[in-house]
Specification:
heterodimer, A: 114 residues, mainly beta, 7-stranded mixed beta sheet, 4-stranded antiparallel beta sheet, 0% helix, 50% strand, globular, B: 109 residues, 6-stranded mixed beta sheet, 3-stranded antiparallel beta sheet, 11 strands
Chain lengths: 114, 109
């Protein structure tokens, strides 16, 4: 079946603009994760959804970052007033609930803030 | 604090040579440890997990709680093993996976 998809694959924006990144998880996966991968860094956990709820938002770097999930499926990560340090690859993953150790990753969105 | 450390950013070995990618962790409880791999132009994917005690593509990893390590090993490296490898920790009963910075393995012909 189809894997996790993310859009756009690449995004170039100007400092100060808002951006929206989208993630379509594997059908039936109730758990969804967002990570950020900066150059030379590992994956940084941002947020986790179980269904439409996000039990832990502490990984979001600042209040400019927000995420939502609707219908237990698609999720959107929004970055307001982007800064150059937001430039990174944003990865989304999904899994069955109770099987967090087997996460399926999307291809990522490469964000460049000029 | 929970932390995963991969001390080597780059590891280069010759084909047929043994390879060991190092991973150390810091966690107060009993974590679950994993290795993820990302081949060129492919998605990040799970390679193996310590609870399975399995060998995948010839790779094995043993959890050493005394040394808080989870090194990934393969006795004879192949060119197709060239990839980025990430060690990761999942807190028990949790959902937050902590990744190391990754080690790029380059297997030379």
């Amino acid at each position: 079946g189809a894997g996790v998809s993310q859009s756009p694959s690449n995004k170039v924006t100007e400092k100060g603009k808002d951006v929206e990144l989208r993630c379509d998880p594997i059908s039936g996966h109730t758990a969804l994760y967002w990570y950020r991968q900066s150059l030379g860094q590992g994956l940084e956990f941002l947020i986790y959804f179980q269904g439409n709820s996000a039990p832990d938002k502490s990984g979001l770097p600042s209040d400019r970052f927000s995420a939502e999930r609707t219908g237990g499926s698609v999720s959107t990560l929004t970055i307001q007033r982007t800064q150059q340090e937001d430039s990174a690859v944003y990865l989304c993953a999904s899994s069955h609930f109770g099987n967090q150790e087997t996460q399926y990753f999307g291809p990522g969105t490469r964000l460049l803030v000029l | 604090a929970q932390r995963v450390t991969q001390p080597e950013k780059l590891l280069s070995v010759f084909k047929g040579a043994p390879v060991e990618l190092k991973c150390n962790y810091s966690y107060s409880g009993s974590p679950e440890l994993f290795w993820y791999v990302q081949y060129s132009r492919q998605r990040l994917q799970l390679l193996l997990r310590h609870i399975s005690r399995e060998s995948i593509k010839g790779f094995t990893a043993d959890l050493n709680k005394g040394e808080t390590s989870f090194h990934l090993k393969k006795p004879f490296a192949q060119e197709e093993d060239s990839a980025m490898y990430y060690c990761a920790l999942l807190n028990t009963g949790g959902f937050k996976t902590i990744f190391g910075a990754g080690t790029r393995l380059f297997v030379k012909a």
